[in-house]
Structures are given as C-alpha cells and as structure tokens.
Fold this sequence. Notes:
With about 375 residues, the protein is α+β, with helices and mostly antiparallel strands. The chain folds into 2 domains: about 15-275, Serine Threonine Protein Phosphatase 5, Tetratricopeptide repeat (Alpha Horseshoe); about 310-380, no CATH class. The protein contains 15 helices and 6 strands. It has helices at about 15-30, 40-55, 60-70, 75-90, 95-105, 115-125, 130-140, 145-160, 165-175, 180-190, 195-205, 220-235, 250, 265-275, 285-290; strands at about 320, 330-335, 345, 355-360, 370-375, 380. A 4-stranded antiparallel β-sheet has the order 1-6-2-3, with no helix packed on it. The chain has a two-stranded antiparallel ribbon with strand order 4-5. Helix 5 (about 95-105) packs antiparallel against helix 6 (about 115-125), helix 6 (about 115-125) crosses helix 7 and helix 10 (about 180-190) packs antiparallel against helix 11 (about 195-205). The radius of gyration is 27 Å and the shape is elongated.
Amino acid sequence: xxxxFSCAHEKIPISSDEADVLFQYARWLQKNNxxxxxxxxxxxxxxxxxxxxxxxxxxxNINLQNGAMRGRFKLRGWEHLRLSxxxxxxxxxxxxxxxxxxxxxxxxxxxxxxxxxxxxxxKAADEGNAQAQYYVxxxxxxxxxxxxVATDMYRCAAEQGHGKAAVxxxxxxxEKRQYSQALEVFQMGVAGGYEHAASRLANAxxxxxxxxxxYYAQEVDPARAERYKAIWxxxxxxxxxxxxxxxxxxxxxxxxxxxxxxxxKLQWLEARLANxxxxxxxxxxxxKLAKEKVLDPATGKPMPGSPAxxxxxxxxxxxxxxxxxxxxxYWKAMVNSWEDPIQYFEEGEMMPTYLSVxxxxxxxxxxxxxxxxxxxxxxxxxx
Length: 383
C-alpha cells in the first residue's frame, strides 16, 4: 500500500431537477420509516430510488445500495456491481468503497480478495470518501506503519463529518498532550453528529486531574459541560438517524470564547420534529422518467430493452407451472429459444402452463399439421 496521502473531499455531481424530486420524496419516506420498517413503504422508496438512480442521481444510487445492504431493498449482486460502476464512471468515490465491500465479502459476483479490497479502499480514500479514509487510517494507525498518513486521513475524514475519525484523531492528539488540537477535532465530531465526541468534550470540562484520561488541560466549566451533555443525549437518542450539529460553534464555542445564549434547540432535531414533506412526485412524472430509461414504473426495475436489463445470469430463479410466483419480475419459459415472449408475473401469482406449438410433418398428399398443447414447464426469472 502506498503511504503518501493528499486530502480530497468527495464530490457528487448535481443531478437533474426531475430526478431530485423523486430522490427527495423517497428520502423523506425512508426517514419516516426507519423504526417502523413497513415493507410497503420500503418498496415505494426502492421504486423512486431506482428510477432516480438510472437518471444519474448519485445520492439515490448510494442510498439504494446502502438500503439493500441493510435488508430494506432488494438488489441482486450484478445490480450492485453495475450501480457501483455508474458511480465510479461519474468520479464518485463511494463507488470504489462499494467495490471494496464486495471484494472483502466475496459478494456481487466478485470472488473474495482481501488484498484487492484494500486497494479499492485506498482508492476510495484517495478519491475523497470519508468512510474509506477512516478505514485505511485505522489500518495504518493500528500497526504504526505510517502514523502521519493515518492522522492525515483521520483529519480529512473528520472535516467531512466522520465522527469516529474525529475521535480517533482527538485521542492521538491527547496522547501527544496537544490538548487544544484534540478539542478542535472533537468539535468536528460533534458537528458530524457523533455522540462520543460530545461525551468526551463534556468530560473535558469536568476535571483538572492530570492523571485522568478525561484531562485536556481545561478549567472546570459545569455550564459548558452541561451543554455538551445535552447535545450528547440527543445524538445518542437519534444515533440511528444520522443526526448533525453544524451550528455547534454557535452553541458551545471552544474556550476562550464565552458561552452565548442558547434555547436548548438543535436545528437538525427541530427540522426532524417539524417533518415537513418535500414535493410529492406525480405519477405522470414517475412514468415519464421510467419510460425514458425503459423501467417498470411500478417497481423501477429495468424492463426488456433497457441497457440495464440483465439476461446473462438467466435463470436467476426457477419456478414450475402451477406454483406461486416467488418474486415479482420478468420470467421466461425454459423451453425452445429466446424468441419466446418474456412475461411479467407478480409475486404470489400462479405460474401458467406453456402453449407448446410444433409442426407435424406428414407424407404427401397430406398437408403438414400444426399441433399445440398446454404443458407444465419450468419458468426462469430474468430480472
């Protein structure tokens, strides 16, 4: 692994306004379903993310893949890989991070390869992904291979709101007795929404005992500590929801600044409690965007004729006539050639018999006879 590192922050290209309407509404639905985990809502979120992602909305792409990895949405391995390649082609560093995951786990059609996975983590870090910067920094720091590079990666990730990286860097500064630098990066961690950064800052203003692991050479300041405790409580309660405190320096600026008045509110929490929905996309818009990319407007999945439709792995699943369809999608009877029509079946729908047609050749002067009959066959899932 190369050891030099130049900090880069991840940049995500702006998407079209129409695709963003679908993304914003899907994200709002997803936020409101974090604890309920309603499968019907998940299916709607997946539909909107899929359509938006095919229109190169890269945040929709990322959310779709993350949700699938958490079991909220249904993506096949080859879909993960194709969507990750779309991110890489758009110079979005998270694409490299996803491929690193797949190589590490041996998923998405890729063989497990830890060494190659590490290369992709490093590439993701170099291209600006904060999670990869923290991951690689931790690898380097844990074996003291390149402590300077590790701290550079931690700082780069912390600047992008990665709370764990901020705390890791703060601990390094504390060990070096660089207390003011430690507090500064802990403050970054609070801005990024990491509750443990707030906890460390609260404790820093409650002790002057040099031998304590909580010592940061600060005057005891109960009022300042109390504010950090209040923030810690909120961040801990909502840790599942990716909270943020971008206004932290307006609430608890670091010494020697005095504490300003504060009403006890956090912008992120107030917005969450207000829960104002964004514009709801019309079905007309959804159908329009789906049609442009040859997607099923009901599911957002690629239809036959779309470049994203996959025949290479046929069959993805097999079901026989008379059985309940195990998964909604496009199915083909596993007989004859690809000239047979592809049909869409809903999950739970009874799989039909297949009309088999052939020619019975007869000797002259009799005419050949067209024969047909309904047969029980195996159906293969295309996508």
